[in-house]
Amino acid sequence: xxxxxxHTRFIAFLVFKEQEHLSLKQYIESKVQxxxxxxxxxx
Length: 43
Prior knowledge:
Distance between the termini: 64 Å
Oligomer: single chain
Helix content: over 70%
């Protein structure tokens, strides 16, 4: 029983990490796109 609870918590942890990774990726992509558009507008 305890093992199963630990397993569920571990999966929740992985899902949380995945969400964190996705939001970080989106943040970086938006930064890159913003910089790209600023460079395009300069020329």
